[in-house]
Input
Amino acid sequence: MKIAMIGSGYVGLVSGACFADFGHTVVCIDKAEAKIEALKRGEIPIFEPGLDALVAENVKAGRLSFTTELKGPVSEADVVFIAVGTPSRRGDGHADLSYVYAAAREIAGAVRGFTVVVTKSTVPVGTGDEVERIMREARPEADIAVVSNPEFLREGAAISDFKRPDRIVVGIEDERAREAMTEVYRPLYLNQSPLLFTTRRTSELIKYAANAFLAMKITFINEIADLCEKVGADVQQISRGIGLDGRIGAKFLHAGPGYGGSCFPKDTLALVKTAQDNDSPMRLIETTIAINDTRKRAMARKVVAALGGEVRGKKIAVLGLTFKPETDDMRDAPSISIIQALQDGGARIFAYDPEGMAASKAMLSDVAYGASPYDIAEGAEALVIVTEWNQFRALDFQRLKACMAKPVLVDLRNVYKPEEVARHGFAYSSIGRGTCAMVAPVSEAAQ
Output
């Protein structure tokens, strides 16, 4: 099939490359000339494992191309995907749909023959109705079917998620779209990936409900972690104990500094606003958002406590800036609030992240960056793990102790076992592990 992908950001680029890999002919379209020129040169504007090779392979095979021109590719396409950004709107928190609606108007002027127009962007309930209204108003004679097909891609594992999905959700109002969408996803359908056809509004709400539930699950285990520290229990064992229950499941039960990224913060907020507008408030999600917002700065207070209640003038080394490993995404990352709170207390921040430092420089001021964990740890009075990159899972504690001013480790991702860190002479603070939340170093005499 011939596919036009409007938007060459994270969702559009990953989806376009994967569709091309399925054998479809895909043109990715974006108004940002610099981005398109970079893609033509083989430069990928985002960090996503395996994406550079996938793009290069399909460009070479002639199945994937990039352009700033919309009219030609859309006029020839069987299916047109809208994959533009839907950021939170300033002032009220609603999803900003201006890019979606602008794309709909342009597509309406370019389609030729029967065309399926698919909203891939995450949008509130009813957006598909408005997209169809805009297109029919702009060009009443256009033969179109507007479809909802939300994405469920995890940053850092997007290609795997696309090619081996838990489910493919497709919302239709015109039965002619069923055949086209089945053909688009034929390789996955043949591999027995569940293809769930629903109404368009149901499909739109599935995406928001899924992200809100996962955000709530993270927030739940974070509150359990706080209780564990008060009563002397271990949140990791609790996570395992409840995660083995098939009704609950083990995923998203890892206590930490709160959720961030491009999806959960804006999608939970958009869902709350949609619910309020429809006189059906979602108190659980409202509370989830409030708890998550306050948790990030609370993590800074944990660092302050580990340093005896005072950080003014002290050098603190921060490991990990992105909201999760295997991405360069800094949007709503916990590190931002944590670092700002520590700076408010007078701390000097040195940071290292394998992929996120370039983006961090545009979001944080007065932060010094280093080339490795050991580089930023030199002379530091505390080392703080904020993002659990794999290279932080096997730190050389002897080397760290030798270069740090004080051997203090604050582990906000529970990467290490308390007794292991204490054995190396470090004072150790973690999340939700009761009496082990703060462990004093083992003296050399005791060893």
In short: The first strand starts at residue 2 and ends at 6. The chain has a mean pLDDT of 95. The first helix runs from residue 10 to 21.
